[in-house]
């Protein structure tokens, strides 16, 4: 087994790093603690940065060349994501990675023409309308309705936890189109703009006071037949393609590595931190976390190698996701324990360590639910991986 990157991949990593260091406004890196999207000025800078990344061709790196992508390997894409995550560069719409390739596979010619180029040029920001108040882990129980009305559909219902809906131009949404069919077989998938009549977007304030999520209400929202993504009532199967396109969790371990690096650097430069690190138990824990971050990276590379061989990861993706999200939460808890009351000082105070990241990071440890909760990952590992009964 040779885990080294090729010289071409190393050179690309250096190019991405140099780009970020030159082009990313410092305010954006610091603003990650305030959550992007909620501050119009910062969001404007994020959009401008996305346009520059688009010019480099890095938004649809792994898309086939005929669709405007670079046809780059998944490894090159992973190198890119690792650098972006490590430097906290929010330059890519995460949906571009997931939805774009799904449109290439399942989209109509009209949808490909309308959305692929615009996504690649960073002209569209997407949001994902999947979860509902009573349909999260059990997504197929969703109740938002799509009722045929002549050549159109009327969408009525509610979505929740919709990240970036407040800044998105378009939504990809699942709705129940046949209430009589078994639950997975009566769902259709739609692509449409977020400014249609009948759509109301309400912010959800997180306990760290950030605004990344929304509730989105649909009241008889009229969408044309051309908004249907894939076949009628077969939306579930198209949605699994969308979700399959981001499973390695490469970015997760790179982001956590950055959090630990920043924490240690802060501790070395600060009397409170130096005192905390003088405690051998704390030093041992920091070392354990550094090991876990390396393990998480190797797990992500394993998933990547399965994907690169054209296979679909299964238990491996769940193991990587579960391990890396638990480890990320552990780093946040460790930071709070290490710095004590100083760690609890929030953004906005000149005394806040790392611009409040310790405090905000700890308040966000619940984020490990996103993309599939720990219990659901354990179910996948037990049932699909170990062949245990449901
Ligand atoms: C950071 C973040 C971003 C998100 N962004 C989006 C987005 O853009 N669009 C979108 O549609 N959704 C989004 N979500 C929502 C996310 O997909 C859901 O939170 C997730 O699917 C869990 O659903 P739920 O919140 O309804 O919890 P539930 O499914 O109600 O789960 C509640 C608890 O019960 C446990 N549980 C549920 N079922 C089982 C079971 N069968 N066995 C054992 N335990 C079980 C869960 O593990 C969890 O602990 C986001 C969530 C987060 C945290």
The structural class is: alpha+beta
**Could you give me the name of the CATH homologous superfamily of the largest domain?**
Butyryl-CoA Dehydrogenase, subunit A, domain 3
> What would the CATH topology of the largest domain be?
Butyryl-CoA Dehydrogenase, subunit A, domain 3
* SSE pattern, N- to C-terminal: HHHHHHEEEEEEEHHHHHHH
- As a percent range, the share of strand residues is 5-15%
Structural Rg: 21 Å
What gross morphology would you assign? globular
- Count of DSSP H/I helices: 13
Q: How many beta strands in the DSSP annotation?
A: 7
Mean pLDDT: 92
Secondary-structure arrangement, i.e. CATH architecture of the largest domain: Up-down Bundle
Commentary on this structure:
This protein has 390 residues and is of the alpha+beta class. The chain has three domains: 7-92, Butyryl-Coa Dehydrogenase, subunit A, domain 1; 127-234, Beta Barrel (Butyryl-CoA Dehydrogenase, subunit A, domain 2), CATH 2.40.110.10; 247-385, Butyryl-CoA Dehydrogenase, subunit A, domain 3 (Up-down Bundle). It is built from 13 helices and seven strands. It has helices at 7-23, 26-31, 40-56, 74-86, 94-106, 109-120, 235-244, 250-268, 271-277, 280-308, 315-339, 357-363, 374-385; strands spanning 126-129, 145-149, 152-159, 170-176, 187-193, 199-204, 213-224. The strands form two sheets. It has a four-stranded antiparallel beta sheet, with no helix packed on it. A three-stranded mixed beta sheet has the order 1-4-5. Helix 10 packs antiparallel against helix 11 (315-339) and helix 11 packs antiparallel against helix 13. The longest helix has 29 residues, at 280-308. The chain is globular. The two termini are 35 Å apart. The mean pLDDT is 92. Bound molecules: flavin-adenine dinucleotide. Flavin-adenine dinucleotide binds next to strand 1 and helix 13.
């Amino acid at each position: 087994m040779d885990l080294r990157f090729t010289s071409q991949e190393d050179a690309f990593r250096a190019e991405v790093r140099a780009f970020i260091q030159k082009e990313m406004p410092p305010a954006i890196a610091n603003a990650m603690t305030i959550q992007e999207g909620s501050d119009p000025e910062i969001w404007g800078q994020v959009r401008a940065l996305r346009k520059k990344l688009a010019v480099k061709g890095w938004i649809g790196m792994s898309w086939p060349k005929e669709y405007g992508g670079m046809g780059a390997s998944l490894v090159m894409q992973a190198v890119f994501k690792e650098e972006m995550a490590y430097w906290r560069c929010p330059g890519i719409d995460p949906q571009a990675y997931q939805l774009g390739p799904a449109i290439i596979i399942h989209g109509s010619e009209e949808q490909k023409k309308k959305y692929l180029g615009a996504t690649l040029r960073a002209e569209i920001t997407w949001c994902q309308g999947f979860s509902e108040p009573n349909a999260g882990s059990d997504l197929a129980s969703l109740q938002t309705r799509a009722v045929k009305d002549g050549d159109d559909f009327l969408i009525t219902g509610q979505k929740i936890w919709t990240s970036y809906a407040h800044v998105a131009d378009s939504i990809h949404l699942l709705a129940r189109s046949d209430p009589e069919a078994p639950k997975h077989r009566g769902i259709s998938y739609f692509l449409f703009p977020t400014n249609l009549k009948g759509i109301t977007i309400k912010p959800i304030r997180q306990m760290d006071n950030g605004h990344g999520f929304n509730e989105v209400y649909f009241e008889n929202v009229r969408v044309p037949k051309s908004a249907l993504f894939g076949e009628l009532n077969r939306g579930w199967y198209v949605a699994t393609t969308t979700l399959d396109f981001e499973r390695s969790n490469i970015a997760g371990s790179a982001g956590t590595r950055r959090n630990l690096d920043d924490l240690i650097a802060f501790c070395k430069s600060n009397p409170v931190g130096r005192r905390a690190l003088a405690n051998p138990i704390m030093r041992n824990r920091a070392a354990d976390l550094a090991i876990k971050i390396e393990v998480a990276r190797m797990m992500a590379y394993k998933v990547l190698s399965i994907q690169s061989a054209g296979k679909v990861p299964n238990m491996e993706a769940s193991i990587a996701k579960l391990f890396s999200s638990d480890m990320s939460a552990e780093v946040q808890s460790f930071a709070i324990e290490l710095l004590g009351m100083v760690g609890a000082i929030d953004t906005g105070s000149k005394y806040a360590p790392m611009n409040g990241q310790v405090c905000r990071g700890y308040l966000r440890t619940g984020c490990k639910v996103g993309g599939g909760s720990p219990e659901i990952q354990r179910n996948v590992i037990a049932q699909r991986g170990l062949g245990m009964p449901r």
